[in-house]
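Colleagues,

For the teaching module next term, I've prepared a clean inverse folding example: a structure given as tokens, and then the sequence designed for it. I'd like students to try predicting residues themselves before seeing the answer, so please don't circulate the second half yet.
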């Protein structure tokens, strides 16, 4: 797993044991673009059987994707699965609900495809990390962070394509909003 990120293994196991629907990231290429979708896990055994990628993160195989429920799907249809919470990893976070990822943009592109309302200017700050009522989905974006990863100033560098989180949960159990 990339250094500095919290493992979600226990969170996934707990959610599955309580009968919750759990989705995990699936990375794929569409033409020359790398994209991310979220695909559903069938069970704890399914999760434990996932192959680990080069960072040690359990990853869904391309061969199993067609049998799984997806959030966006192959044609960009985002009416396939509705998520309540999207747990978002990061290297750093700040009190303004900004996050710094690993720089590939997978999550922000996924949010733009899955959450953004139709015909909205994503460069307009009033819609960026927009109120839940104006999104296609009402999913909350929640960052998981070690205390050391949360900066006390609004100084995590962001661009117009970065989405703000709804909350950050820290290692000591605090919920920042």
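(Answer key — instructors only)
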């Amino acid at each position: 797993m990339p250094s500095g990120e919290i493992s979600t293994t226990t969170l996934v196991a707990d959610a599955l044991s309580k009968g919750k629907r759990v989705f995990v990231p699936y990375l794929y290429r569409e033409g020359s673009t790398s994209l991310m979708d979220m695909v559903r896990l069938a069970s704890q055994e399914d999760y434990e059987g996932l192959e680990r990628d080069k960072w040690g993160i359990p990853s869904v195989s391309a061969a199993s994707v067609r049998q799984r429920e997806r959030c966006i799907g192959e044609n960009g249809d985002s009416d396939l699965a509705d998520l309540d919470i999207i747990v978002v990893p990061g290297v750093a976070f700040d009190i303004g609900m900004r996050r710094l990822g690993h720089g590939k943009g997978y999550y922000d592109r996924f949010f733009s495809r899955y959450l953004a309302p139709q015909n909205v200017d994503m460069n307009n700050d009033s819609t960026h990390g927009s109120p839940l009522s104006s999104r296609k989905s009402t999913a909350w974006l929640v960052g998981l962070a070690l205390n050391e990863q949360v900066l006390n100033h609004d100084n995590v560098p962001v661009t117009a394509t970065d989405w703000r989180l709804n909350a950050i949960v820290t290692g000591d159990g605090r919920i920042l909003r």
